[in-house]
Amino acid sequence: MKLTFREAKEEDLDSIVKMFSDDILGSKRERYEQPLPESYIKAFHAIDADPNNELIVACLEGEVVGVQQVTFTPYITHQGGWRAAIEGVRTASSVRGQGAGTELIQYAIQRAKDRGCHLVQLTTDKQRPEALRFYEKLGFQATHEGLKLKF
Questions:
Q1: DSSP letter assigned to residue 55
Q2: Residue 94 carries which DSSP code?
Q3: What is the mean pLDDT of each run of 10 residues along the chain (151 residues)?
């Protein structure tokens, strides 16, 4: 598969939100409708304006088939090192199982290295055991227990 990667544009939002809503968990929390809810557009502009956030799309023959957000954060720990967090990784159902997800994550890892990060971290929903296996195959290790508090 010959994917190309670039930062997302506002006109990519329709494809992005469609991918987010195209699974059991996403269909419960996302709103893929026309026109897209304004909240997605506001979030896109906030991400786009932040030099420490990248919303990356993967394209196949000009079509958006994958997405991920990479956030770069400085920490006082690890001697003031930077780390990257990968979130919102999705691929279009038309390319699942063909290596697109692997290429996306490898791209994010390279971006983190390019930015001088000392580690990359991510979370995956416990209801997605196949995603956990996927990330472990790529070398990620479950070294910490993560917690969330939703409002």
A1: E
A2: G
A3: 94 96 85 94 98 98 97 95 97 93 97 97 91 95 90 94
How many other CB atoms are there within 10 angstroms of residue 43's CB atom? 14
DSSP per-residue string spanning 47-62: HHH-TTEEEEEEEETT
Is it true that domain 4-137 has CATH number 3.40.630.30? yes
Q: How many C-beta atoms surround the C-beta of residue 102 within 10 A?
A: 14
* Structure token digits, residue 63: 């079509």
Written as one letter, the residue type at 74 is P
Burial (Cβ within 10 Å: 0-12, 13-18, ≥19) of residue 81: middle
Are residues 59 and 95 in contact, defined by beta-carbon separation less than 8 angstroms?
A: no
Residue indicated by tokens 């508090």: 149
pTM value > 0.70:
yes
Hey, is 31 helix, strand or coil?
coil
For residue 59, the cross-strand partners are: 4, 64
Domain ranges of the chain: 4-137
